[in-house]
Design goal:
Layout lengths: L1 E4 L2 E4 L4 E7 L6 E9 L6 E7 L4 E3 L7 E5 L5 E6 L8 E9 L4 E3 L3 E6 L1
Parallel strand pairs: 2-11
Antiparallel strand pairs: 1-3, 3-8, 4-5, 4-9, 5-6, 7-8, 9-10, 9-11
Length: 114
Amino acid sequence: QLQASGGGLVQAGGSLRLSCAASGSIKSIVSRNWYRQAPGRQRELVAGITYTGSTNYANSVKGRFTIAADGTGTTVYLQMNSLKPEDTAVYSCSAATYRGNVYWGQGTQVTVSS
């Protein structure tokens, strides 16, 4: 129901754009989020966007990452610029509905080489 894509290998300082497309079967989405989990570390919230367009970011990515949704809200993007080796992780997207359900997409690997 959520399809994530766009990961890959990039050199430090480079950019990647992740996409997360939601199927029409998920109704009443109120927020969309990107998380990441590096080996041996806990999963952390990277960025989120609500249905009103409000956004929030982890301090570690502020000024470098941008979350945005397309006009229909079906697809959410995470533009990642000035990537650092510490951004290396598996990135996953989620969607939360007003009923409190949370849907997850599969992870996509982002690897930043120094």
